[in-house]
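Lab manual, section 2.4: Encoding a predicted structure.

Procedure: take the sequence of the chain (106 residues), apply the prediction step described in section 2.3, and record the output as structure tokens. A sample record is shown.
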Amino acid sequence: MTPPGRSAPTCRARNRHRTGPGRFARAVQYAGRLLCWSLATAMASAATDLLLAPHARWWSYAWPAPWILTCASALTWAVLRACEKNAAHPVTDAEDPYQDEWEHAA
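Recorded output:
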């Protein structure tokens, strides 16, 4: 028990700077969520454009925006996921079967 007037340490203090394989997990989750929601928004805007055919001037600029965001978030998610997988399974010299060939080629 802590003395009066002092607070116990929180979990945030320990997890502020992650260095292990799980350091990309939260970023990958957020990028994946952004990808799903932007894709859903893009499909809804395409359906609105097809079915309702709005004639507002700004609509021709607004409906492609979720598709652009979908492409950007898909690229971001792929890069972060690759970094996460690389951090989880780093390649060591013992795992590389072609190490001798690379040294000979160099």
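Check your result against the sample. The helical segments are 11-14, 25-51, 59-62, 65-88, 99-105.
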